[in-house]
Amino acid sequence: MGVDDDSKETNVSQTAANTLFAGDLIDPVESPAFQDGTGEADDLGALFRNHYKGMFRVAYRITGSQSDAEDVLQTVFVRLTPGWEQRDLSPSPRNFLYRSAINASLDLLRQRKRANSVSLDVVDFDQTSKTPTAEDDLVDTELRELVRNAIAKLEGRAATAFVLRYYEGYDNGRIAEVLGTSQMVVAVTLHRARTRLRKEIGSYLEKHHEKE
Question: CATH fold of 127-212, please?
Answer without folding.
Answer: Arc Repressor Mutant, subunit A (1.10.10)
